[in-house]
Each structure stands twice: as C-alpha cells, then as structure tokens.
Amino acid sequence: GQQLNQSPQSMFIQEGEDVSMNCTSSSIFNTWLWYKQEPGEGPVLLIALYKAGELTSNGRLTAQFGITRKDSFLNISASIPSDVGIYFCAGRSAGTYKYIFGTGTRLKVLA
Amino acid sequence: GAVVSQHPSWVICKSGTSVKIECRSLDFQATTMFWYRQFPKQSLMLMATSNEGSKATYEQGVEKDKFLINHASLTLSTLTVTSAHPEDSSFYICSALFGLAGDTQYFGPGTRLTVL
After folding, report:
1. Which residues of B touch A40 (CB under 8 A)?
2. Which of A76, B18, B64, B102 is deepest in the core (most CB within 10 A)?
3. Rg for chain A (alpha carbons), in Å?
4. Are the Cβ atoms of A1 and B45 closer than 8 angstroms?
5. Which residues in chain A have Cβ-Cβ distances shorter than 8 Å to B8?
C-alpha cells in the first residue's frame, strides 16, 4: 500500500539534544497525526494537526502542518532516554476516513 | 484521549486453527475501526476498514475469507484469522476513529499472533 516518505529513517542522538523529523506526501492532506510506537505496543497518538500552518505542542514535542499541506514536521526538544521508539506520521485527504502512514523514524537516545 | 483495548495481547496456536481477536473502544463509540498488520521493523499495513452494521472493506491483496471481520456494535470489532498458518504470524493492531468528524485515530495495544 501507499506510504508517506518520512526522514530520517533512524537517528542516534545524545541525551539533551533536539530532534527534527519530517514527513512528505505527493497528495494534499487535511489532517496530520504523529504517533510514537514502542516495541510490542500499539502506536500512541502524540499530536494531531488539522489546519495548514498549524503549530501544536505537547510538552517537549512540537509539530507543524506544512503550508503546502503536503508535509509535516515533528520536533523533540531536550531529548531524554524514554524518547526512544519509532515515530510515525499519518496523513489523510479530504473525502476519506483512511490514513496513510509514514515509513517511520527510529530514534535512539544515548545517555 | 480515547482508549482502545485489544484482547488477547498475545496468542499461540497450532496451524489450521482459527483465532479471534477483539478490539473495543472503551470510552467512546466507534462507527469505523481499522485493522492493521505490522511486520518487524516495518510500518503499519492497513488490512481492512471495519464499519459498524455493514461489511468490512478490505485492502487489495487481503483475503477476506482468511481474515473475517465483524463490527457488530459501536464498541466492538473482531478479526478472525481462519485456518491460520505460520505465515500469518504477525503483530495485529486495531484502531478506531474518534471525534465528531472522525478526525483522530486511536490505536489498541496490539495482538502478537504466533502460529506453530
């Protein structure tokens, strides 16, 4: 099935560093969701974006809905060891209930 | 946020048997639920859309007779893997749409199926 291009694929960072990842689509979306998944568990919703240009924060996490409506960004500030996991973006176009998922960004934080 | 549960969290079965996985929305009603399959180190693969009171819609390449979906109430969808074989071993995750416009999707904790 279709997947969104998410980058980077993986990141190894030092504790305390900031993290940026992004997701791009060839289609225009009207909703973007960001999830975190840990091993053996289902994805957990982090942030939901519903409007182009929207910037939303959840603690140390900030996500933005790109102006072109074809991309979205997730930033994590001052990373900590428990930020380890796989981060997925998901986007949805108007007129459908189905979300398309990104390929995932695997984050590892070195203490 | 909305809570979605799955049961069982893991199951081991013999080849040829059928396995049923339940997905429940605990604190909201879900007209639409989704079933995903995930292989190790890969993203989620949508298998089917489960709609309350109607037949499920399957993605291309997913055998509907193999993966039976029933969405009998606004809080429960079930996935039955019929005549399971080792290649059906995987992590199965359900999700439910939440909100007036169904804008947000919440996932269950997943079910690890191992077929011997």
Report:
1. 91, 110, 112
2. A76
3. 13
4. yes
5. none
